[in-house]
Design brief:
5-stranded antiparallel beta sheet; Structural Genomics Hypothetical 15.5 Kd Protein In mrcA-pckA Intergenic Region, Chain A; alpha+beta; single chain
Length: 208
Amino acid sequence: MDDKKCKVCRRAGEKLFLKGDRCFSPKCAFEKKAYPPGRRDSERKHRSTATEFGIQLREKQKVRNVYRLSEKQFAKYVKNASTAGENPSEKLYEQLETRLDNIVFRLGLAKSRSESRQLVSHGHITVNGRRTSVPSRQMKIGDIVSIRKGSLEKKPFVGLAEKQNKAPVPQWLTFDAKKPEAIVRALPVLDKAVSGYNLTSVIEFYSR
């Protein structure tokens, strides 16, 4: 049977890559059942025509689930972005991407954001030389993210070089696998074509 993460992808109508390597394998539930859970056989090939509200809701749910956030957490990010200036969608993207757990994922140190959150929560990651256990911590330009020395031999970090080859690091981050250490060189910039998110739609959903 599908687990909760697989059903999230099926409801969204696209792969959100919530289960790491499994999402790229034939075992991926979305590959077998690319229709919403609960649909009858005769309905599987057709998705209902969504209203504007429905489209915005689905996009909100998609982004929230990709970053593995609760509704309360996500709404707070949207509120902060909406009062930040002229480009709330760009500010929202910046806040989501510069979370510590997301950066750990972007560096290829974890197969999914859920796993990266566990790595941070269990104290395997340091920021500017200090151990931290707060996945939501916002990183700034110049911050240094490292694997704690005492954790380097732990299972999640075995074969680090191989993991790096599978996960290209974003241009706003640099990573030295020999140390291993990453530096936030710049703030992430929203590219709608690359991200696949319609964050303007998300902002509009919460401004109703």
